[in-house]
Amino acid sequence: MLKLTNVSAGYDKNVKNNKNAKNILQDISLNINESVAIVGPNGCGKTTLLKVIANVLPANGVITLFDKPFAKMSRREISLNIAMLSQQPNIYFSYSVFDTVMMGRYLHIKSRFANSPNKADKSAVIEALSAVNMLDQKDKTILHLSGGQLQRVFLARALAQQPQIILLDEPTNHLDLKCQLDIIDYLKIWESQQKNRAVIGVLHDINLAMRLTNKIIIMQNGKIMANTTAADLVSNNLLNEVYKMDVTQYMQDSLAVWQS
């Protein structure tokens, strides 16, 4: 589905032409055919990797989507296939829930002569809102939503885009526990409904990462330290080394509190 080969990237404007530029991502090679969670300490390059996959940050190396190199794809073609759900942004407009989700259809609408939503667009929005249990709120302005409701609307907007891959950049930050679980579970259902779909999620909460998928990527200092399963992650000491703490003991201590 998505393949990265020897990919490096940074934020220097001349990174492609400056051999002395310091890259944040260092020689990343991945082959992603199913949902994966990316974990690692702050500043290790997780968000930078998502930006490269979303084609909003230039990179050295080769990225292919369904065997077609990014270099031979238009920005529109990449964007139709890859959607991104980030942390809840500040809101500066008072669109309705329905109109906000319709924004996910922008690239589809723009490709048509009339440049206006058609029946298929409206059906996609209704379906997306139903998937996140927000259809009954479709006429409400987003300024009147709770944080959890708002993030569900933005997830619906990504679903309405009808991509093959959804990128997550800490989408559950600042949400209560139920909202966090709901977002992850909605995404798992979406991924399971059709072949050739995947969620690539950056999550600080390791438990949420494991709830999303059994496939875990560990990053440190811009490099892939491991591409493994949740079971292997628990059984070795790599997390302890990356986070510089006894992660397993921390989890066991937390469980002991609940068991007591």
Count of separate DSSP helical elements: 11
- Share of helix, binned: 25-40%
Radius of gyration, taken over Cα atoms and rounded to an integer in Å: 19 Å
- Tell me the span between the first and last alpha carbons: 45 Å
Could you say which structural class the secondary elements and strand pairing correspond to?
A: alpha/beta
Q: What is the oligomer described by this structure?
A: single chain
Strand content: 15-25%
Helix/strand order: EEEHEEHEHHHHEHEHEEHHH
Per the principal axes of the C-alpha atoms, what is the gross shape? Answer: globular
Number of β-strand runs: 10
Please describe the topology of this protein.
Layout lengths: L1 E8 L15 E8 L3 E4 L6 H8 L6 E6 L2 E2 L5 H7 E4 L11 H6 L3 H5 L8 H13 L15 H14 L4 E5 L7 H16 L5 E5 L3 H7 L2 E6 L2 E7 H6 L2 H6 L3 H13 L1
Parallel strand pairs: 3-8, 3-9, 6-7, 7-8
Antiparallel strand pairs: 1-2, 1-4, 4-5, 9-10
Key descriptive features of the protein:
about 260 residues, alpha/beta, six-stranded mixed β-sheet, four-stranded antiparallel β-sheet, 11 helices, 10 strands
What do these coordinates show?
With 260 residues, the protein is of the alpha/beta class. The protein has eleven helices and ten strands. The protein has helices at 46-53, 75-81, 97-102, 106-110, 119-131, 147-160, 177-192, 206-212, 230-235, 238-243, 247-259; strands at residues 2-9, 25-32, 36-39, 60-65, 68-69, 82-85, 165-169, 198-202, 215-220, 223-229. The strands form two sheets. Strands 6-7-8-3-9-10 form a six-stranded mixed sheet, sandwiched between helices. A four-stranded antiparallel sheet has the order 2-1-4-5. The longest helix is centred in the last third of the chain and has 16 residues, at 177-192. The model has no long low-confidence stretch (mean pLDDT 90).
